[in-house]
Each structure stands twice: as C-alpha cells, then as structure tokens.
Amino acid sequence: MRVKSEKRRQVILDTARKLFTTKGFSETSMSEIAKQVGGSKATLYNYFKSKEEIFAAVMESSATKGVADAFHDLSSEQPVAETLLLFGTRYLQFILQPEILAIHKMALVEAERSEIGRYFYEQGPKRGWLNIQHFLDKQVESLLNPVIPGLPPYS
Predict the structure, then answer these.
(1) Which of 30-34, 69-73, 78-82 has the highest mean pLDDT?
(2) Other CB atoms closer than 10 Å to residue 117's CB: what's the count?
(3) Given CA atoms 85, 121, 72, 78 in this order, what sign does their dihedral have?
C-alpha cells in the first residue's frame, strides 16, 4: 500500500471540487476523479471511503477559512452593531461566492439521497448559529452584569 500524503489528498480534493462545481455531484464519478488526478480508484479509496466522503471533505475545506474569518469578527471588542455589521458583510461575501453557492446547492440536492445534507447542516449552519448564539449571550450577559472597576461582580 502506498503512503498517504497530504499533498496528494489536496490534489484529490482540488480536482473533485472542480468536477463537482462544473458537473454536479451525481454526474461526477470516482473514475473521473481518479482519471483527472492521474491515479486509480484504488488510490482514491486509500484516502476516502466514498464519493460522499470526498464531497464532505470538499465542503469542509471550502468553508473552513472563509467562514472562520467571518466568525472571528464575533470575538471583537468593538460595539455590537459594528461587530455584527462586519460579521454579516464578511459572511455574505463568502457564502455568495459562486463556488460556495454551487456546493451548498449540491448538498441540498443530495440531502434526499444520502447523509450529505445532515453533515452539511451539522458542520455548517448549526455550528454557525451556535457561534452567533454564544456571541449574543455574552453581549446580553455583559449588559445585565456590567463590570464596574473596584466592585465585585454581581452574583
């Protein structure tokens, strides 16, 4: 068995991303991904158990940096309105990119046939809503229990 490399895995993901976004999930086959990568289906299966697993990895790698940047804004010490405006702007700029929209659409279409929709929701929107909830909870807590220098916190 050949040794797995992160570089080879990334080539597989990049190739699959291009095929998924141009042809769609159902029209992209493991054989075609292998052909484009320059290997065999056995090589793909060495890295991923299924086409669904490749797609899940494509979704995750596509979203990680862009969404993380937007959600990082929620840790800002800026006024709430400013923070939410910056967050919303970055978030929308990211999710409205054609490639991200295509991946989202495929996840929704495939949700009826596989676990991709559930995985997408659990790793994406659900986590996002929990992050926003945490941020807003902290804002409410700071309003209800303001820190006043020299006084102990209210309990």
Answers:
(1) 30-34
(2) 16
(3) positive
Indicate which CATH number applies to the domain containing 138: 1.10.357.10
Q: What is the dihedral of CA 117, 124, 65, 94, to 10 degrees?
A: 90
Is 1 within the bounds of a domain?
no
Q: How many domains does the chain have?
A: 1
pTM reported for the whole predicted model: 0.73
Residues spanned by the domain of 23: 6-144
Q: What does pLDDT average to over the chain?
A: 87
> Within a domain: residue 154?
no
* DSSP-assigned letters across all residues of 5-62: -HHHHHHHHHHHHHHHHHH-STT--HHHHHHHHTS-HHHHHHH-SSHHHHHHHHHHHH
pLDDT digits (tens, 9 = 90+) for 118-127: 888 888 889 8
The predicted structure's pLDDT at residue 2: 57
